[in-house]
Each structure stands twice: as C-alpha cells, then as structure tokens.
Amino acid sequence: MTERHSPGRPPLVEAVNRIGDRWTLLIVHSLLTGPQRFGELSGSVDGIAPNVLTKRIRQLESDGLIRSTAYSDRPPRFSYALTDDGRQLAGALALLSTWGSRHAGSRVPSAPHAGQHSRCGTPLETKLWCPTCDQSVDANADDDLIHL
Question: In the CATH scheme, what is the code of domain 11-87?
Fold first, then answer.
C-alpha cells in the first residue's frame, strides 16, 4: 500500500476502498500462511463462490497486494502469494481477529488465538508506538494523537 493518499481523502477511506470487503480480508488472511493455488484458496476461504474469488484475486493483483505465478501453461494455472504490501496487512488483521474474538461470545473456541499470549492465554493489548520518538502514544490524549 502506498503511504500517500488523495488530497482531502482520509487514509481510512483509502484503506476501506482497497480491502474493506469481507472476502478480500479473508483472502489476505488465508495467504498469510504462504502461497496457495486457486483450489486451496477456495477451500480455505469458507463460503466464497469461485467467480467472487476470481474477481477479488484480480482486484488484489491490480492493487499490488498479491501476485500470481504460473505453474502450468496448458491450461493456465496460477499460485497466489502476498506482496510486501499485502503482508503489511498482517498486523491489522491480527487486531481485527482479536477484536472479533472478544465480541464473539460463546462461539470462540478455547484454543489460543492470535490475540492471546501463547504461554498464559492472557488477551494481548495493542499500544500505539511512535518509532521516531521511541515512545508510547496515549490514544485517549488529544495532544498525542491526530484523529483521521
């Protein structure tokens, strides 16, 4: 993803326009484990229709979030993998997964998930951090955070 955005257009709007639908997020999440062929990807994203998967793959390719590599010429067959920009979404997806698990109630399995510490099972907390200043930023303090 690019760091720049259209003048007057909030960065969150740009992000939502690129990856804001259900299937796109699930495809990216599935590809975090590594490259997959179409059939593997279809099987790992529960409930997606083949035509929707094809459309989302093409959109993700044009957005530069995944790349395809041909593994057969006749018939043409491809393997799909995240680009560096696509892999940068891992943190955001982990945050969404953690949030979702906290709001899923009894539907959450007892096994640890991405939002739990693997040793003790305690839910992890997310902190904002400024790498330039090398310090934590208080999300509730108006003078520390620019709201987008």
Answer: 1.10.10.10
Spatial distance between the Cα atoms of 62 and 64, rounded to a whole number of angstroms: 5
List, as one string, the DSSP characters of 26-74. HHHHHHTT--EEHHHHHHHSTT--HHHHHHHHHHHHHTTSEEEEEEETT
* Tally of CA atoms within 13 A in the half-sphere of 1 that contains its CB: 16
Distance CA(142)–CA(147), nearest Å, equals: 8
Beta-carbon count within 10 A of 57 CB: 20
Domain-wise residue ranges, the chain? 11-87
Question: Tens digit of pLDDT for each residue in 92-106?
Answer: 888 888 778 777 764
Distance of alpha carbon 46 from alpha carbon 140, whole angstroms: 37
- Chain center to CA of 136: 24
pTM of the model: 0.69
Q: Which residue has the tokens 């690019």?
A: 2
